[in-house]
Here is the input.
Amino acid sequence: MNRLRSCPSTVRLGTGLWLLLALPPLRQALEETMSRQMLVQIPLLALAGWWLAPLVPHAVRARLLPWNRQGISGLLLVAFTAMLWMIPRTIDMALESPAVELSKFALVPLGIGTVLALSWPQAGFVVRGIFLVESVATAFRAGWLYEVSPERLCSNYLLGDQQTLGRVLLVIGAAASLWLVIVLIWGRIEVEPAPGA
Here is the structure.
């Protein structure tokens, strides 16, 4: 208990959020619809992983630094992990297999949240820009696929829920695009040089 109290507040928040999301009533409520699983549960698991990043020892960070120069390798891992959990078959398997569900609760916080928290500070302006633009493009691609598909892509969710998710992803993509344009035209972009650059 004393050790937990000595941890940064973000670690306590991350631990609490992860445990809260793992509680069966909340987990089942968030997985009841495709939209809630992809737009609420998975982002919250990633947020928990981001908050848990201070637990990564400095020795491990130092070893990863040459492998993750400018955050490129880490951001690629984040992108691939996120895409994995956007695949309809993976979503179905998470509902049908306890092992896959457990892997979601491990891979999303660690492979998305923690890795993003460690890699983002290393990334420069161009790398961050490419990552953000590709994230927006992925939202548009997935949103279009989910909305126009005439058949259910996930056997555990209704077609209407799938189409709702598609529309929401398109709106998110449009809003993120608008935000990026506003920041580029009128905003002030400050990116600290990556360590060792």
The chain has a mean pLDDT of 89. The chain is about 75% helix and 0% strand. The longest helix spans residues 159-186. The radius of gyration is 18 Å.
